[in-house]
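#structure-requests
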Amino acid sequence: MNKRQKLTLLAGAIIIILAFIIWFYYGAQLFTKTQVLIEKKDELFGTTYKEWQNKFIWGLDYTMYITGATVFICAVLFFVFRKKKESLNENNS
């Protein structure tokens, strides 16, 4: 494995780890949510009601999209950098 391949694998691993850290930070939800149901209390009458609030919550689905794309891109780059290394060795011989 040459230097570029190692750098590609390291960058891919860092991106995947960051995606999972962000997912865990947002509460480790299975699906991404853009609205959350909030229960509010009416001060005047003392009753409670439910209301949708716009709030983005990162889900596992986005994390898996990022992970899949990162793995695919890293695999392609790993292969491309390997081929360049082999072609350099053939030219020097």
